[in-house]
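In response to reviewer comment 3 from the previous cycle, which asked for concrete evidence that the modeling workflow produces usable outputs, we include below a single protein chain processed end to end. The sequence was submitted unchanged, and the resulting structure tokens are shown without manual editing.
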Amino acid sequence: MPKSIFADPRERRSASEIALAAIPVNRYAGSLADEAGTLSKGDFLRIYRDMAIIREFETMLNEVKTKGEYAGKAYEHPGPAHLSTGQEAAAVGQAFLLTKDDYIFGSHRSHGEILAKGLSAIEKAGEGELYPIMSGYLGGRTLAAVEGAGGGKGGVKALAVDFLIYGALAEIFAKDTGFNRGLGGSMHAFFTPFGIYPNNAIVGGSADIAVGGALFKKVNGKPGVAIANIGDGSMGCGPVWEAMSFASMDQFRTLWEGEYRGGLPLMFCVMNNGYGMGGQTCGETMGYGRVARVGAGVMATGMHAECVDGYDPLAVVDAMRRKLGTLAAKEGPVLLEITTYRTTGHSPSDSSSYRTKEEIEAWAAEDSIASYGARLMEGKVADKAELDALYGECRELVAKAYALATDEAASPRMDAASASAGIEPLMLSNAKAGRMGDGACEALMPKADNPRLAQIAKK
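The workflow returned the following structure tokens.
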């Protein structure tokens, strides 16, 4: 008989009421001085740099899609480009504390999330482990293109930054030198050595996959957490509710034993930019008001839900630090709503006719990069010349990756027809894994003594 919990009718039928705890909304009020004890000048400037890289990367993609060129070089890209311009602080703040052992699973508009997570992994990795990762990936194909173009003159970490930006862009442009040989493209790009797992063309699809990643970590004692990056529109989709229902099961905390007892190391991170394609989620297509409210209906803990200002990268870093602590204490899953906004359309072909010009301009006036830069200058962390120079370096990084990714000789498209056995070996491993890791399987009794096995054997 499996383990169970006695369902007491006296308790179930007794009169009571359900009390819901208050859900914090945009409570962060920290200053640069407050953060100085945990963040250095280099940290403050890295946050600015990472946001600038993402902004320029997506500016480049938008210009290619709308103008057919960038930095004076023409290029035609027929693939999708679901941009997140305006959401840079949300992506960078979320990734700032994460390492390569933490897994992120993205949504439609994941360019910023991919870059932010990769840049954070690079910062935290040792130089001795970065080069083997790059040289061993796809037989060194991506790295060879970067090194052939003179990348990484500032050392191994500088090379890794070039590698990351180029590998992601080459993948988006369907090049053989891309992170996935151009087969994933913009909506299925990933680089698992940095903990970057595929984004998803199915709205909310990453939620279920992230649950699997968190369960893998839990039962195998692996370090790190799993994060489902989903949009506010995905709250109307079944996979998200299925994922939350599975992840919140009480048995993790009541029936599992020993080191396995406790919640999944899982975060549902909702990038709430206010729109699900062309529908305004708050006030129109949804009834939650704030996504964080959903947590109260899923678990008695409320999923430790919180809504944070995604236009303030330091507020997001602070929230992530606390939520990661909650997960480390085995009290997950958690729900973090990051309020943000996309100033571009759902895609470059979207004219944003469902919202007013005044609304877009109002959010653009609150631009997270400009406002954060102003705080750095006001706090004497950097002056305008220093920030301008840093932004200029980011433009050069993106321009260099663009020039290389659009060079047909250095970055060719994959010739699947000439592959030894066609495209099949690139898509299917034709291999199997007998177990998820090393060590003996744990069981409550020897296999030979299992009564259910004995019962089945008689049939």
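The first strand starts at residue 69 and ends at 70. We consider this sufficient to address the reviewer's concern, and the full set will be provided in the supplementary archive.
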